Amino acid sequence: MSGHSKWHNIQAKKGKTDAKRGKIFTKIGKELAIASKNGGSNPDTNSKLRDVIAKAKSNNMPQDTIMRAIKKGAGEMEGVNYEEIVYEGYGPSGVAVIVKALTDNKNRTAGNVRPAFSKYGGNLGATGCVGWMFQSKGQIVIEKKEDMDEDEMMMIALEAGAEDMQVSDEVFEVITTPEDFSSVREELEKAGFEFLSADITMIPDTTVSLSMEDSELFQKLVDKLEDDDDVQDVYHNAEFPDEFEG
Fold this sequence. Notes:
The protein is α+β, with helices and mostly antiparallel strands. The protein has three domains: 8-74, Arc Repressor Mutant, subunit A (Orthogonal Bundle), CATH 1.10.10; 84-132 and 205-239, Alpha-Beta Plaits; 135-203, Alpha-Beta Plaits. It has eight helices and ten strands.
């Protein structure tokens, strides 16, 4: 069940990039608003909201900022209505790309996403063109520490309800079904684990190996998309060369 994973490097890089650009609070704020709007503002009865609050706290989002976003979503404060849009397309070398956006202006978002693909060697495709290549999974990333035993960590994860665990030199990646993500996250939290990240993600079934030249071009596409305030997440099946630093 364990094995080397190529995904934590991408996720870690993404997290650092978002934080550096100062956009992560805006993006999590939208997630809080949507979760509150769809399931109510009480985290005790809204598991999705609990998950996003945990994500916000792990990114050091201030409590008053969290509460403001929740109240806006629930209609307790004036806010913006966001709509989720999913774009699918291809990057250099046929890399499959899924872009998830939360926007209050679909024309603006499309007007930013489409040219980004075109500029960096890709093209936007029809809905469903690459989605079948990915599986929706819960992914909880825990930093490996010297006193952590791999077998014991596997047992704890499975007892919490995880479906699998990926192991690398630096992290444990606990994989769950989307339905079990909340309960597994909460069990691991109760057990005292701190997360580098914990979210529902899209994991590709197969990967596309990129040359160094295409890696650089594709990274520019990802950076351009993630720099857009409307874009929440970018998923892909690119496999970068070991020497690529991004």
